Amino acid sequence: MNRQKVWLITGASRGFGLEIVKAALIAGDKVVATVRSNPEKLQAQFNNENLLVAILDVTNEQQGKDIAAQATEKFGHIDILVNNAGFGLLSAVEEASDAEVKANYEANVFGLLNVTRAVLPYMRKERSGHVINLSSVGGLTGIIGWGLYGSTKFAVECITEAMAAELAPLNIYVTAVEPGFFRTDFLDQSSLTRAKNVIEDYGVTVGDMRSYATQVNQKQPGSAVKLAQAILKIADAEKPPVHLPLGKDTLQLFKEKMDRFNADIDAWHEVITGTDHDDVVAQ
User: Fold this and answer.
1) Given the DSSP bridges, would you call strands 172-179 and 80-83 parallel, antiparallel or unpaired?
2) What is the pLDDT of residues 205-227, one digit of tens each?
3) Which residues are 245's β-sheet partners?
4) Model-level pTM?
5) Quick one: which of 43, 104, 120, 165 could link to 53 by a disulfide (CB 3.0–4.6 Å)?
6) Residues with catalytic function
7) How far apart are CA 105 and CA 4, in angstroms?
């Protein structure tokens, strides 16, 4: 895009969202940044006429529609939607309550869908746009203690891939960004929920992960500033990718998953390929 781009970024008060806002403004673009409260604080932090800060609870479908309309009225169009809002859930699959799991899905999946449905009509009208969904390494492979949170990101992966194919004829791109462990406040209490129920039998698996999450907080290898620059690069790309895994840890964990997957295929190939009807011609 040669014109000044217009971004709509959810979850912009801190972490990845805040760094992407900074990077986009420095690049000279216009930004609609959404927060759950205190929009004046973020507006004052930048004091930039290219920035509009608005309150948005992504689980509120009408608020999403209102923000999309407000962004279009203010800046004329929306070029890039960054679905960043969400939070983590650290828990064994068995430990978390129904309410805890539903809350995670409401923000990470249904909230993303609310905002996406609100923005896409404007992009379809323009026959242009890019939806960037913040996923996770946990959306590429199951990790002890992160299975439930990761399942929300697995959903984001599938949604992204399907949308990318559905929107391609309309010149609208969709990308899932899969960060590994980055040095943000994701592991702080402000962004991470831990299941209230703790089962002792999971002490050597999920228990160790709980301890690790506490120890590694603010010591993660990934740089949120560099992630923001990577987001700007795909926003400028003529043909952005459907997947952008970020971090050496993400690549390593995904490679290990694929090695295990391929080993299962090799070991069970006869069973896997032996389930078609006999009248189906072999390929």
Assistant:
1) unpaired
2) 999 988 878 766 656 667 889 99
3) 178
4) 0.92
5) 43
6) 135, 149, 153
7) 34
